[in-house]
Amino acid sequence: MRAYFNISLIPYSLEAGSDLKCCIFKRKDMGVWQFVAGGGEDDESPKESAIREFHEECGVSLDFLEKDHLIQLDSTASVLVDHFPGLVGDALEKEIYVIPIYAFAYDLTKYQDVFQLSEEHTEFRWVTVEEAKRLLHFDLDKTAVCELQKRVKR
């Protein structure tokens, strides 16, 4: 069953002496650039959902994923439940009108070539933060990548 939250996950790479790079994905249905994204399922925590979505959308093996490389960011947003037809009826009965979106980042510095593009996307690109801010569609994604940049510079 679909849970009442979404996640956004930034795959990123930061090699010594280089700028932060992140991987963005072009959605097949909307034609917009975004990070890995999706909704929670059943009793998943947002962190578990982020790992599952990363696996589903990028083909990264669950055995490969190291949970200590996952960072939960402070950036969050909310979206009207109306954007999710499968949730609307039940959500309104429970007086749920918006669902939160939690942001995460995953360090792929040593493993940039592990992706297998899912059917949800037409392409992916490794870009700088400035390129990401220009190409990304959703404000949360832009905010989250700026937060990530500040975190990794420390």
Shape: globular
Number of helices: 4
**Please, what is the CATH homologous superfamily?**
Nucleoside Triphosphate Pyrophosphohydrolase
Element order: H for helix, E for strand: EEEEHEHEEHH
Mean pLDDT: 90
Instruction: Report the helical percentage.
Output: 25-40%
Helix-and-strand structural type: alpha+beta
Total count of strands: 7
From the 3D structure, determine the CATH topology.
Nucleoside Triphosphate Pyrophosphohydrolase
The fraction of residues assigned to DSSP E strands is 35-45%
CATH architecture assignment: Alpha-Beta Complex
Q: What's the story with the biggest beta sheet?
A: 7 strands, mixed
Q: How many individual domains?
A: 1
Uncertain regions: pLDDT < 50 for 5+ in a row? none
Give the CA-CA distance, first to last residue: 39 Å
Report Rg. 15 Å
The level 1 CATH classification is: Alpha Beta
Any chance you could write out the topology, listing elements then pairs?
Blueprint: E1 2-13, E2 21-27, E3 33-34, E4 36-41, H1 46-58, E5 70-80, H2 85-93, E6 98-107, E7 121-128, H3 129-135, H4 139-153
Parallel strand pairs: 1-6
Antiparallel strand pairs: 1-2, 1-4, 2-3, 2-7, 5-6
